[in-house]
Amino acid sequence: MQCPKCGSSQPVTNKECPSCGIIFDRWQPRAPRRTTASSTPVPPPPRGADPESASPAISNSLVAAVLVVIVIIGFIWTKHSRDARANASGSVDETINQINNAGTKLRSDLQNRGKRGGNVVHASMMSPDSRLPPGLDEDKIRDIIESCSFFQTEANVEIPKQIDAHSYSLGLNGSALAIALRDHLIEFDPPIDSNLPNGEPVNVKVTQYASAKVLVSDNGASYRFGLGRRHVKITSASMVNGGVTTTFTWTVDQSDAADLAPEGVNPSGGADIQKMTSGWSLTRAWQKNAGTTRYLCQ
């Protein structure tokens, strides 16, 4: 017989093929393979056929038309967006211009009103100015008065570093010390109250707020509060007996602390000016306070 696997001749009594080694009793022939789609041969396309002819053809003219439409739509949208932004920007600019114009007009009106009001006040206070001699006006009169040593010297206030509690309670309530305490320029340590015994020393300390209102310096046993120079404001002027008599008020550089000035609150005074060989000159200046007269320069 022949081996069913390799085909070699074998004696009938053999149970095993000496060539390939199979055992005849166990041999089973292989089942035939199923045909699958992948194993089925695909016939080649006929000669001369276009491989792309199987899919539907897209016209080049159609593609070009679609691209043109897209470009036109993009152009129209871009123009619309630019126009919208331009209109919005123009609207905002117009609103800002309206606000600025209204503000300018309001400031101009207020300035004109202030000028008219200032002219009225000036005329009511300086109406005799038209009868002043040539070469002598309000500015000249102010310069002459401020040449006085009282106005050339800076105003200062001495604040002691230590006080007696009993003395303060007796008679210092109207002093610069009390005003400085009222305006929070200084503070007491310990605070003054009725529980402090007579003669108890109280330390005076300068607050941080003080430097915003006065010029603070150390003067040994006291603090010096500098108020700056005094500045005159003419309130009236008229010719009297060939000379000029004027009234005025004044303030200091540190106007927020003017109450501390030695001359008191809202000081006012007067002055006489005479024509000398060298020109107009101050003969005397005084301060009126509570019915008394204190001469500043003479």
Quick structural gist:
With 298 residues, the chain is α+β, with helices and mostly antiparallel strands. The protein has helices spanning 60-125, 138-146, 149-152, 165-171, 176-182, and strands spanning 155-160, 162-164, 186-189, 201-206, 215-218, 222-228, 230-240, 243-252, 268-276, 279-289, 292-297. Among the domains are: 130-141 and 230-297, no CATH class; 155-227, no CATH class.
Task: Give an overview in words.
- By secondary structure, the protein is an alpha+beta fold.
- The chain has helices at about 60-125, 140-145, 150, 165-170, 175-180; strands at about 155-160, 160-165, 185-190, 200-205, 215-220, 220-230, 230-240, 245-250, 270-275, 280-290, 290-295.
- The strands form three sheets. It has a five-stranded antiparallel β-sheet with strand order 7-8-9-10-11. Strands 1-6-5 form a three-stranded antiparallel β-sheet, with no helix packed on it.
- The relative contact order is 0.09.
